[in-house]
Amino acid sequence: MSPNSAALTTEHFEKFKQTFLSEEKNLLAQNVCSKVDPFEVALSRKRIEETQHIFNTKIDAEGKPVTNQKSSGRCWLFAALNVIRLPVIKHFNLEDFEFSQGYLFFWDKIERCNYFLNNVVETAKRNEPVDGRLVSFLLYDPTCDGGQWDMIVNLINKHGLMPKKNFPESYSCEASARMNQVLKSKLREYAKAIRDLIQKGASDADVQSLVQEQMTNIYRIVAICLGIPNDTFTWNYYDKSKVFHSVGPITPKEFYETHIKPLFNVDDKVCLVTDPRTSNEYGKAYTVDCLGNVVGGRRCIYNNQPVELLLELTAKSIKEGEAVWFGCEVSKRFAGKLGIQDLKIHDFPLVFGVDIQSTMTKADRLLYGESAMTHAMVFTAVHTDDKSEVQKLRVENSWGDDRGEKGYLLMTSEWFKEFTFEVVIDKKFVSDDVLEVFKQEPIVLPAWDPMGTLAC
Q1: Which of 61, 106, 280, 352 registers the highest number of CB atoms within 10 A of its CB?
Q2: Which residues make Cβ contacts (< 8 Å) with residue 88, sequence separation at least 6?
Q3: pTM, whole model, 2 decimals?
Q4: For this structure, is 375 an active site residue?
Q5: Catalytic, out of 154, 159, 225, 375
Q6: Which CATH superfamily is domain 57-452 in?
Q7: Catalytic status, residue 397
Q8: What is the pLDDT of residues 113-123, one digit of tens each?
């Protein structure tokens, strides 16, 4: 086919316009969408009337206050800490409580930058070209805010936890773009220095000496933007009866090991994913090349299972009183103001004459770049019918309390099957045959694989 035969001509444009003008509904849609958010226009009034934020099975008590990650990509940290705080609130008889998201964010930035620089070392030793797909991918976003469950486990096991009152938010916690801009610039500069040194035949000791020198500057930048957490702290609090209590002085790691781990042990939780691409079998373990945040920490391991199992175990966990951390693609078929995730919440054909996200399967969307896990939240309730089939789930988000049902979302089971990719479940709810998959040597997916997308 010649280039000229594929080019759009004046005749094509005229035909497109006449086809558009021949339907008066298009003019009405144009008038409305020129003044209003097109997705708001497409909202189905009927579906809204049918949707109620009511559930017949909830965990004992949800956490307070509703959290807000603001202008940062820390949803994975917020969701994890929102889950962990639930048994803490109950055990200590608290009215409300938050762990310090800024504390884990500080250590993730330090550890993640070191992990990136050591990835530069590793890929240079593999003779990966700087303009090849792998190194180009790593350089594109050397230190984003997003993360995965196994990264949370790495941070907590190494650095522990701290109450928010002992390490509150800073400007760059809530709006991380400027700090990240500085870090990314320096990391790319440092990547070149590392590759140049390795190309000259430097010893491993000399390379690591350079990395440590670079990390001194990285630490300074992060410390200036986020502050430096104290080595020890004292947690003073009132319980619901207004009785004063004090814990400490104590290190963050001791705080986790002594007071939190008996209530919520991150090592007892397992991450299950669902990837329906025919190239990736169910019942297999996968990992992603160069993905992680702590050098020497555990790898991000994906136990691939059918989505129906993820939904079943989520409902089982909630019925047993345990909330569930999960990852999904939050923006698809989502009425943000109303907090509804439902495949029928928008009537796109009525507005645009075509539907979206309807003809491609979940596997197709992964293959064609139309879908990936982008956000982490928490399931706190489930609604089942008289046959115990899941109909909908309640979701605790981290965008403040002015969206959805006072900060909570509603997700239908159909939406779960299409756009949820990952859940974290306690081992006690998972069958032995599924747990056995974690003993496999994982298949390594390329760094750019959509299963390596980080929740932010």
Answers
A1: 106
A2: 94, 97, 259, 260, 263, 264
A3: 0.97
A4: yes
A5: 375
A6: Cysteine proteinases (3.90.70.10)
A7: yes
A8: 999 999 999 99
